[in-house]
Write a structure and sequence with these properties.
Oligomer: single chain
Helix content: 10-25%
Distance between the termini: 57 Å
Number of strands: 7
Number of helices: 3
């Protein structure tokens, strides 16, 4: 500012520099690491140095199966790809706990709820079961 002058905006133009380990989308950071089948099935430990110098220990337990992300899923993609749903008649998943329910049987509305409201809440729906009156959402493992 200067006396007797109009104030103006200060504009910063930043060029994001690519990082050798981390990839960024919005406020989220991602790393990509190939793991062997043995690591995926039997567990592994990965020590990661974060950008601020913290050392993070990423660990999976033996028996905890690490699966690759859904085919075609790219966390860095600009446009989100819609989930393709398969329909199975007269099926249920009683061993999987319900994580949400809806008082509708409109399949298109239920699909939209999975891809918007539930996803924003961090619920990754793998299946929903519809009976005569309502639907039950079950989370992926």
């Amino acid at each position: 500012e200067h006396p007797d002058a109009d104030t103006g905006d200060v504009v910063f133009v930043l060029k994001e520099q690519e990082h050798p380990v981390f990839k960024r989308k919005g406020a989220d950071l991602f790393i990509e690491r190939k793991i062997s089948l043995v690591e995926a099935l039997c567990g592994f430990t990965l020590e990661l140095t974060h950008l601020d110098g913290r050392r993070l220990l990423i660990k999976t337990s033996p028996g905890e199966i690490v699966k690759p992300m859904a085919q075609g899923f790219d966390p860095l993609a600009v446009n989100e790809v819609k989930t393709e749903w398969e329909v199975f008649e007269d099926c249920d998943c009683p061993t999987i706990d319900n994580v949400a329910q809806a008082d509708t049987v409109d399949v298109d509305m239920l699909k939209k709820a999975c891809e918007t409201q539930l996803k924003r809440k961090g619920i990754d729906v793998g299946v929903f079961v519809v009976d005569e009156r309502r639907a039950y959402f079950k989370q992926c493992s």
